[in-house]
Amino acid sequence: QVQLRQGGGGLVHPGDSLKLSCVFSARSLSRVDLAWFRQAPGKEREFVAYLSDSGVVSHYSNSAKDRFTIFRANAKDTLYLQMNNLKPEDTAIYYCAAKQGVSLPTGGWARSDLYDYWGQGTQVTVSS
User: Fold this and answer.
1) Which of 5, 15, 26, 101 would you label with 118, given CA atoms 20 to 30 Å apart?
2) Nearest CA-CA partner of 13 in 107, 88, 92
3) pLDDT value at position 28?
4) Cα separation of 122 and 8, whole Å?
């Protein structure tokens, strides 16, 4: 079982930066793959970024590529999403997610239905 507790978020202006955090704890030593998703009002939840258990492999959505960075720190028990050059279309509730045990299939990192555990969500609003 994995527990996720999110922090960060808030109201920023276009072009600003923001860093989201997600503290996670796992009761077993099995692998845990991590990801960030987001959901804007009236839209489906969408993939943002993925980080493998090893911390070596990462994937990003086209909208996040070159602006966002996913990484782990603090003895690897905290997941971060560094967001730079934020745009109004980045406004959404952001969720961290975890998949424990078996590795995700190719491309599966972008599928929200394959993740077992979710953070409580944090609001990010980008507005002038």
Assistant:
1) 15
2) 88
3) 67
4) 7
